[in-house]
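I'd like us to work through together how a protein chain folds, taking it slowly. We need material for that, and I hope you will provide a protein of your own picking. Go ahead whenever you are ready, and we will take it from there:
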Amino acid sequence: MRQAQFFSPTRRDIPQGAEIASHQLMLRAGLIRQTAAGVYSYLPLGLKVLKKVENIIKEEMDRAGAQQLLMPAVQPAELWEESGRLSDYGPELMRLKDRHGRDFVLGPTHEEVITSLVRDELNSYKKLPVNLYQIQTKYRDERRPRFGVFRSREFLMKDAYSFDVDEGGLDKSYQQMYEAYKRIFTRCGLNFRAVQADAGAIGGTGATHEFMVLSDVGEDTIAYSDTSDYAANIEIAKVVDMYEKAPEPQKAMEKIDTPGVKTIDELTSYLSIDPKQLLKSVLFIADDEPVLVVCRGDHEVNDVKVANACQVSAVRLAEPEEIEAIMGASAGFIGPIGVSENVKVLVDQAVKTVSDGVCGANMNDVHYQHVYPTRDFPVEAYGDYRFIQEGDPSPDGKGNIRFAKGIEVGHVFKLGTKYSEAMNAHYLDENGREKPLVMGCYGIGVSRTVAAIIEQHHDEHGIIWPTAVAPFDIHLLILNTKNDEQTQLGEQIYQELQQHGYDVLLDDRKERAGVKFHDADLFGLPVRITVGKKAKDGIVEVKTRRQRQVEEVPVGDLPSYLVTLFEQIDS
């Protein structure tokens, strides 16, 4: 490709509103342009990278035995009613009506469509297992699109769905996808971790793993062991029950006035106590039912664990007026003592260590002191309802927990029969008995993966593409297009490199050398070849994007030199 005709508009400035490196560089290097908030056009350079990632995904999905298809983005709303997700999914679901007033949604995911597609086709155990995948645009009406294509309203996704006769078959399909994902992200040049995760709005039971690219700009926190390969999203990382029950205090519980003192920091200062002595109470609403969660003052309640304990898809924090109506006091003064029977109380396992504690008295400006769990309020059973913390023992019994930030680029789920039972997708087993299909779901954010690669592979000058996903292999610069010797040698090298199978971007623009070097660094192609003043001697300069060192290479030696150079880059 000749750069003089290549549609690759670059920018020198940092675009307004672009907070992270990948967003800035995708705009500056001309990979994308914003059409609306959270909606982007991919320009030729960006599309070439997107296709490189797609091809890696296709190769590994095909290798794992999956078959590619393409489903509609516009989905009948009645399919979502069948699954029960039309009202549950939330405001992110984009809805529309056709001219006849029929309700549709723009697909954020395709569990409903794939289940409706196969339920009349995969009707015998003889046709199973099957794994079907697509690469398609998805739509989610994000409240606050940000970070470029990381959190956008329209994005490219690979989603796959496996169908098996039983859980054993699902385990096998799940493992095949798990291994395929490891190969995909390794080939993309990413430093990632597969972490245990929550199923979220997709649903299902059993194992689920997120594939997280390690990055300081990640919106998710990974809890990992410092001595083993354990890793989990902080939302679901289990806390080891290492707590011994504290001895009962000598003093009886009593009320104390705490006017205006309601936060943990205020209470510890006001009473001169350790946060570990405080019993923090948080009121949630789970399917319209109030749930009070009690944890230690030095811990934070984990809403995902609370939702799982209540067997609901999600819980929400109670509104101030709800707290007043249910508990009789405002937040900061509520507690587990004298709670109505209509309120479910969950007590975190660390609370058993509390002796001589302090908690809200369910009256404004009043707390209880000398509180002892089980003596002063009932505890049916202790559970794990808090976020894990750095330094806690690793759940696998090996080492201690550390935190890292991560960008989710892939997620694999065991759906089980959640959708097949709701949508009557059954098969006949070898005995002629009707059974629900056992499903798995496997997604990769293709456009997210491109941005994640840039986050891990860039410097102050621009992008540094891994060779497997680079839009071109080589950037060939003719520094002075008015010089016949440089132009002729550049054209000769351009033709020869293409004959050797390299994808080459030839900078034949009538621009200053500084502009060409600047754009070459910004584009970040693996190898740069510069045809300059020594063209008359048949010598060019070669450098890799990752290294700053420049080597002078005779044109005759260039083919063999490049073979060795690319082997070194990929090693």
Notes: Residues 152 and 306 are 29 Å apart (CA to CA). The chain has a mean pLDDT of 95.
